[in-house]
Design brief:
The protein is built from seven helices and 21 strands. InterPro entries: ARTD-AVP (IPR051712), WWE-dom_subgr (IPR018123), WWE_dom (IPR004170), WWE_dom_sf (IPR037197), Znf_CCCH (IPR000571).
């Protein structure tokens, strides 16, 4: 498996973000419009098994007495996007009810009965011995991925859609984090075995990047709902939704579609659920890796548009009375306007219209927050 992370040009590439994964994550909001991908072959595989659809919807009235299989239908089709984070049963040898994995006796296709068997740690998607464990199944069983703290660190970043691993027994493979699958290798599988103590964080795609729920976004306002609340509701019903208000607007978060919607305007934003990163117990972070793990959202910079469409950063030099940081502080206080002087002229910044007005000449310039 992998042995190291590239630190400088010319070193052996073990992990990288593949070309199909954009660092800026600029795909449309519809990429998470559906939790799971499916095709005709997947439908046929599901149809061959008596899978309880009520269990998958989160409310089977028969529980352990149900005659159908209590197993994640997307796991059966190798298309469950949640992997180890999925609430549903991923163990084909066990019968799950109400979020628990309990073994049951079931018939095989030949009419014989299998013995009752408790799920082993190898079959389970939970691993309490470690905070996380990344594994690959290349067709002959699950194997640990060496230096998996690199995968975990990238997976914990909401703007990272996937990663490419080079030195596996099958050569280079690309892992899609959003659907937890190996791209272009249908027979290969990937999973993240997590701990019950894993802290899950929820993010939404804002105007200038990804923002965590409960923290201030690009407009300086924090959502009243936090990751802990979202995770609690998600565990109750992963097909459900949650609503919350901001000012005069009501927003709805769909767990099934993984999007946030403005109820009034139907404007949607993507939502992602990622684990809080726990540093490796044995590995030492390289300088490049530390850079990768820098906060997703940097301190915003305020700029004004000059001649020929060139943007300039506000600086407290050359007669200007404010800097970019001064403007950001005022913006975070949720003020609508701010005044400043440049040489002998007075100016007003309008945060609602995102422009700068010369109070003497009424000349206007655009401003932006990047």
């Amino acid at each position: 498996m992998a042995s190291k992370y590239p630190e400088e040009e010319g070193s052996e590439n073990i992990y990288e973000s593949p070309s199909e994964f954009s660092g800026s994550d600029s795909e449309t909001a519809s990429d998470s419009g559906s939790c799971h991908s499916s095709d005709s072959n997947s439908s046929k595989r599901t149809a061959k098994r008596n899978i309880c659809r009520y269990y998958n919807d989160g409310h089977c009235r028969y529980g352990d007495k149900c005659q159908n299989e209590h197993i994640c239908k997307y796991y059966v089709n190798d298309s469950c996007r949640y992997g180890a984070g999925c609430r549903l049963n991923h163990n084909p040898r066990s019968h799950a009810s109400s979020g628990t994995n309990e073994p049951r006796e079931r018939k095989s296709y030949g009419g014989r009965h299998r013995r009752k068997r408790c799920p082993s740690s190898e079959d389970s998607d939970e691993d309490d011995s470690r905070s996380y464990r990344w594994q690959l199944d290349l067709g002959d069983g699950w194997e640990d991925i060496a230096n998996d703290h690199i995968l975990e660190a990238q997976y914990s970043r909401p703007n990272t859609k996937g990663i490419r691993i080079y030195n596996t027994r099958a050569g280079a493979i690309s892992i899609d984090f959003t659907k937890m699958r190996v791209l272009k290798k249908r027979k290969f599988k990937v999973r993240r075995k997590g701990s019950k103590q894993t802290e899950w964080l929820w993010y939404y795609r804002g105007d200038h990047g990804w923002y965590q729920y409960g923290e201030k976004g690009s407009k300086g306002k924090a959502s009243p709902i936090k990751s802990t609340k979202l995770e609690k509701e998600y565990q109750k019903n992963l097909q459900g939704s949650v609503q919350f208000p901001i000012d005069s607007h009501t927003y709805e978060i769909s767990f099934k579609g993984m999007y946030q919607k403005n109820v009034s305007t139907d404007l949607k934003r993507r939502v992602r659920r990622r684990p809080k990163y726990e540093p490796s117990e044995t590995g030492v972070l390289t300088s490049v890796f530390k850079k990768l793990m820098a906060p997703v959202n940097k301190t915003p910079v305020w700029q004004f548009e000059g001649r020929k469409g060139k943007w300039h950063t506000f600086k407290n030099t050359g007669g200007c009375s404010v800097s970019s940081d001064d403007i950001e502080k005022c913006y975070q206080k949720q003020q609508n306007t701010m005044t400043f002087t440049n040489n002998d002229d007075n100016y007003t910044l309008n945060f609602a219209r995102m422009n700068q007005v010369n109070n003497r000449t009424n000349a206007k310039r655009k401003i932006q927050r990047t």
